[in-house]
Amino acid sequence: MATFKRIGIDRVLLRCSCGSRTPLCRLYFCRHCLKLRCGECVSHEVDPHYCPNCLETITGAEAKLKKNRCANCFDCPSCKHTLSTRATSQAVPDPDDPSKTTPKKVYYLACGFCRWTSRDVGIKDQPVATGGWAEQENSDFKRITTLLEYYRQLAQKEKVEKERKKYTRRRGYLHFSDKYGLASVVAKRRVGMLSMSSLSLKEGDEVKVSDAPAADPACELEPISQAVYTEPLVLEKVTTISQRLANPEFQPTNRDDLYPKHKHMLIKRSLRCRECEHNLSKSDFNPSSIKFKIQLVAIHHVPEIRIMTVPSLSFQKESQVVLTLFNPVGNMTHLNLLPSDPEESDWDTATIELPTCDLVLAARDDASEFDEGVDQQQEFNDDSSVITFRKANKIGFVVKVTPQKAVGEVKVSFLMKYDYKNMTTALPGENKEPQTDILQHCVYVNLGPVTS
Questions:
Q1: What is the pLDDT of residue 1?
Q2: If you write DSSP's letter for every residue of 385-427 in order, what string do you get?
Q3: How far apart are the C-alpha atoms of 414 and 354, rounded to whole Å?
Q4: What is the pTM (predicted TM-score) of this model?
Q5: What value, to the nearest 5°, has the Cα angle with vertex 375 and ends 373 and 379?
Q6: Torsion, Cα of 265, 268, 271, 272 (10° steps)
Q7: HEC profile of 344-367
Q8: Nearest one of 269, 301, 273, 265 to 282, comparing CA atoms
Q9: Whole-angstrom Cα distance, residue 300 to residue 30?
Q10: Quick one: DSSP state of residue 343?
């Protein structure tokens, strides 16, 4: 569809409920609060973590322990492609007769794109294909672990202090007369406070936080090797910036020090409306599936406006621009175009004359696109001065634009008001008709530069 092309995707924008101007194909439509939502005003939730290579699915807590990496799959440190396990035979001494050799099956990692192998860095071949590959040891691992434990204890201390302030005993209310019936309520509340306070520490106790050793400042830097000045530089043996940043713990300078890295895990996200907390987008849990359980994109619910033809736009000269309207729903839609709010003066660089009549859009019917024998323009009694053509759920209409600036882009804005049948209000078991709501969105159109 032309809407999803990167070229010209920002020519027609709609105003989201948060005030941002976004293309229709990047908006969501909440069927419960009947508002447009963009990616900035929805709640993002992480569903499953999965490996894009082996499609293993793990929970969020397990992914945190594994540092968001797969334990079985590796990336090539040279070109970032996925490494594959290769099998080969190796001659080893026969345990029954040491003077003879017997073939043994071993495995190593190899990249099918750049031909890098684990043998290039001296990693020994493994007898099994499931893992056990040697990894680099970080010299600062103990220091990082100590700091993580120190800040974990600080967080626990702050949490206990917050709970202690929350459940601090307040002044009793037993001095009130029992005629108000407060004695039993206060007694139950006191029992609940005592049970919650028993989970935390006593008032005199405190969480002990072990002091983390201070960092030793480096007074002297390691001297640069003389080989940097005397030996010629071989670029084939030097790592690139991207290869070094891919391994920030070691940042190797030579290609002989490149070790395979565990593959990063990916996630599937679900989007939720912040106002009514209903799901707007929820994918299938299976990582190999690209289907969605819920996908309320606005392009399936809101009429879409596109630019069809734009003539030469001259300064203070009226020009006729043909726009098209698409109806994405399965019922007839009545639409009106109204002048925009005066607050949108920062966008408008031209004046626009909109059609005063109602624009009627036929229901979406995929089979009607192949029916060429019906003249729908006479069926709907369209005004030929406004409606240029009609085909299935698509119409073309004319607007008159007059640029007010001699240079720059010609921009106009207007309000799109239409009726929407809310299908969520009618339950499947009820014979109730769906409720019809009147919705209104502000549309911003960029018609291109002014011609001199």
A1: 45
A2: TTEEEEETTEEEEEEEEEE--SSSEEEEEEEEEEEEEEGGGS-
A3: 8
A4: 0.72
A5: 135
A6: -90
A7: HHHCCCEEEECCCCCEEECCCCHH
A8: 269
A9: 11
A10: G
Q: How far apart (Å, rounded) are the C-alpha atoms in residues 142 and 31?
A: 52
More confident residue, 154 or 179: 154
13-70: pLDDT as tens digits: 999 998 899 999 999 999 888 999 998 989 999 888 999 999 999 888 899 888 899 9
Q: What is the DSSP letter of 8?
A: T
Strand order across the beta sheet in which 21-22 lies: 21-22, 12-15, 435-449, 409-422, 333-339, 359-361
pLDDT above 60 (res 159): yes
Tokens of 39: 């990616």
Q: What is the pLDDT of residue 330?
A: 86
Q: List the structure tokens of 58.
A: 């793990």
d(CA 336, CA 27): 21
Specify the residue for token string 């990582």.
Answer: 287
Q: Using CA atoms, how far apart are residues 120 and 78, in angstroms rounded to an integer? A: 11
